[in-house]
Amino acid sequence: MTEAMSQEFRGYLKKIGSGVHTSKNLSRQESAAATRLMLQQQATPAQIGAYLIAHRIKRATVDEMAGILDAFELLGPQVPEIDNPQPVAVFSVPYDGRSRTAPLLPLIALLLATEGNPVLMHGGTCMPTKYGVPLVDLWKGLGIDWTALTLEQAHQVLSETGLSMVYLPQHFSLAHQLVDYRDQIGKRPTLATAELLWCPYAGNRHQFSGFVHPPTERLLQDVFALRGNVYPYTTIKGLEGSCDLPCDRTNIIGVYNPDNDPPFERLFLSARDHDLGGAEVPLESTETLLAQMHQVIAGQKSPLLPAVLWSGGFYLWHLKLCPDLRSGIEKVRSLLQEGKVASTLQHLCQKISACS
């Protein structure tokens, strides 16, 4: 760390942290520079903590969020494009996991890969402030360990199996070293919102971002537009900010496709219209959840099955793997009962093992 760098960062901190009447927003370029200084530890720990909490209180602007993503793109990993006619489904979900309802993404990813649509996830370890169950732990419970793969191996596995994960501690250690600050300040920083927008894939994709509050979705849309996004994306008011579709209420979904006129449309879908409505499955424990996941993969009766049929059917339809939602739901049922999802998981286990 150099004195000049910490003085530069001090200027950015002073600008956003001066209070209601005198603080100012950063430009996109200033936000990118400040984020680079944090990622590269060229700001002091006191400066980083103060900046994160000040930004949390002020709330990031569209320009500031775009700058954060510019820094992520410059310093972070990018999985090279694979040879597949289908766009890679990139899931951007909260890194601090789920604590109340059962997460479904590993099962959704297996379903999509079984039908030939590749999936790339990204995430880390158990993380503040929710300390919910992280995706990587669920995958370990299914026999898949993403944590030791190099980025090149992650790319290879994606190309050969249609499934992979960018694991923050292994592939983006610069960002992972800022995780402790989340615990120390006791709040999700602006970086947590950036993770809902970040896409560590260099090729043709369809990005999915979960959200809880409507202003977050508006921010996502505006940042995508400012950064010149040319790929489809979908925003989902999902369970605990995830991309899992609720079964107990109407789903609110935003769909952006640059080839459509208008490019953005709103979907309102109800599981009750397909006899799949009901209470959400609670997350009782990781062990119970994994047992339920194994039941689903084996084509057995499980409390998770209606939720998997609902979310899985939506994604098969939405990614044009089925002609309509109802046929997507039935396709999920047949893939599970015929053991095809189990075969996909077995194939993935073999490929991961070959990398070790």
From TrEMBL:
Residues 12-71 form the Glycosyl transferase family 3 N-terminal domain. One of its GO terms (cellular component) is cytosol. InterPro entries: Anthranilate_Pribosyl_Tfrase, Glycosyl_Trfase_fam3_N_dom, Glycosyl_Trfase_fam3_N_dom_sf, Nuc_phospho_transferase. The keyword Glycosyltransferase applies. Keywords: Glycosyltransferase, Transferase. Coiled coil: none annotated. This is Anthranilate phosphoribosyltransferase. The gene is trpD_3.
